[in-house]
Amino acid sequence: MDANIYAQVKASIKQRLKIDLENYKDEQMRRRLDSWLVRTRVNTWNDYFNLLSRDSEELERFRNYLTINVTEFFRDANRWNALKEEILPYLLKNSMENRKVDGLKLWSAGCSIGAEAYTLAMMLAEVAPLQKYSILATDLDRGALLKARSRGPYTQEDIRNLSLMQRQKYLTSIAPFYVSENLQKNIRFEEQDLLAARFDAGFDLIVCRNVVIYFTAEAKDKLYAKFCAALRPGGVLFMGGTEIISGPAKYELQNFGISFYRKIGSI
Prior knowledge:
The chain has ten helices and seven strands. With 267 residues, the chain is α/β, with parallel strands linked by helices.
């Protein structure tokens, strides 16, 4: 796809789907769009956008394709183990010392099909079963959010990192797997465009993993600043393994272990 066609496609997508591809890396997004057009067996983008104007189901399929979703429960298990053994005890201790009556406030940003939000709920049930908490889980992909709200179904691949005990305690016994209703009770799923939306504030923990790798440097800079504003002082941002924030101090963040950044100040 040449630059002129890509510019036209981006403009049409922004107009029809309210998704701004200017925030995504050009090379990756061009390859993704080229692949989609081949898959649809439509000859040109003009023909495809004409199809979208008459087919609402195809429009929704295209919208969901553009929001990239690669996820599973406890993805990158070593980092989740660090969250369990180091970060959560720190947050729980501060919450207790400051007598936070509403408990921990957590956010899974770019939650996809909900595996990350449910992973957080599982971890809190194991680490602090009596702890009050709330989890906001957001994504732009409506299809993924529908699956998350429905508690599944999840595949064997999705749950491969769960222990036998976790499978028995939190999932239905046979495939396709569904998460228990009890695990969902403190999670709120909402549609959200991270770069366009206004954020709530006062979060103890924000988990945003393997999302910003697709964004331009300018989009990342904007998002990091928004995340910092959404964290309470002393709150923690949990990023993906390859998502390293260069010069975190300019966002009022400091390194707090591999993949973790702490907002400067005390909770």
